[in-house]
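Suppose a colleague, Dr. K., hands you the sequence of a protein chain of 279 amino acids and asks what its three-dimensional shape might be. Before reaching for any lab equipment, you can write down a predicted structure in token form. Begin with the sequence itself:
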Amino acid sequence: MIKFFDSNVHLHNYKLDLKDNKVDNVLKNLNFEKNLTNEKLNLFIKIFENDLKKIRLDNYNYNLMLFDEKIFDKKINFDKIFGKIKSKTVLANFRIKKLDNYVQKLIENKINAVKFHRYFQDIKDSDIGKCINLVKKLDKLKIPILIDTSYGSEKMYTHNNLEFAIEILKYTKETKVVLLHSGALKVMEAYLISHQFHNVILDTSFSLDFYKNFRILEDYVRVYSKLGPKRIIYGSDFPYVDLKSSINNFLSIMKRCGFSNSEIKLISYKNSKKLFNNF
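The predicted structure, expressed as tokens, is then:
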């Protein structure tokens, strides 16, 4: 039996139908993620855990993305709400003035990783210096850094995600840096970055499903095969990708990469267990 640790799960507004990945509903869901409350979190966890039982994913854990930069100002009861959740990642509040206090809250609330999302957070070139100031502190504490490297939207030519990733990587020595979505359409560029910076890990979320019927998927097979199983982690990007389909597609592609069952287990679970080591 293969265990799964999903590196990339989002809150889901179950009133919205995201099966067709309609842009307007996706944007609404992102706004739903943006303003967190204890009630929203409790509802999501309850429904999502029930969904997991329905599709019989008994050997499944996940890292929950929390997309509210100001989450520590919302009086969220972390201990009570996240008791069963194995890992949680917060969106980096790099604009905050008291960075030391912010980092202390990450530790106190047992946050497993910090994420930068250049599109969603509208991180401009002028903001990169602030991001680096936070990254230096995270690196010293070996707190994993997750960077969105998707490619699309109206910001795809003004907000270069992989260029941003390189600037962040220049200031990391101790911690791991995950390139979420493996660079998407720019997967070969993501590979070149991983070749230069050996603390880079590639995450499979969204891209394997989005490009399922495109020839670029062959590039993913080549990149993953070359990079090796120790530097890849499984992710779905639920609810923007159907969870069961994501797992089946992932397993199929890993076999095409020529990975053995023991190597697939590294990617599906063990690498993330080591990365998000607070459980």
